[in-house]
């Protein structure tokens, strides 16, 4: 038994559970939870869609692919965003079947406010960590991000 109360073989699993719990809480607080706390009329999915459209004008099919959903699901969200004045849709002259989506000033303002609030929360959290520990944490986080891109899911054990 280790000082953490875990069997030595269970320590990596315990660390993974601790990481999962902290990451889930962090993502909730900086994503859907933040949007709820800001009391926007938008859902987290709509804010994400606005964020993608804000980066560049997209077609509906490109947005669906990026969000990994069916085009019909994106169309429903876009209908609501357009009715509320967050986006505009235009048909391409060369091919009228192609619909491009762009953010309106109202949509831009909303995304900017959400990103600003997230940045403020992150800065407040990070400022409470000792600078040396923060540097180690950020370097480790960068490493995890890079490693997660390289892992082949089919090579992992299926433990469920």
What order do the helices and strands come in, and which of them pair?
Layout: H1 11-30, H2 32-37, H3 44-55, E1 58-59, H4 60-67, H5 71-83, E2 87-91, E3 99-103, H6 105-127, H7 131-150
Antiparallel strand pairs: 1-3, 2-3
Helix pairs in contact: 3-5, 3-6, 4-5
Describe it.
By secondary structure, this protein is mainly alpha-helical. 64% of the residues lie in helices and 8% in strands. The chain has a domain at 42-148: Orthogonal Bundle (Arc Repressor Mutant, subunit A), CATH 1.10.10.10. It has helices at 11-30, 32-37, 44-55, 60-67, 71-83, 105-127, 131-150; strands at residues 58-59, 87-91, 99-103. It has a three-stranded antiparallel beta sheet. A hairpin with a 7-residue loop joins strand 2 (87-91) and strand 3. Helix 3 crosses helix 6 and helix 4 (60-67) crosses helix 5 (71-83). The chain starts with 10 loop residues before the first helix and ends in a 10-residue tail after the last helix. GO terms for molecular function: DNA binding. This is DNA-binding MarR family transcriptional regulator.
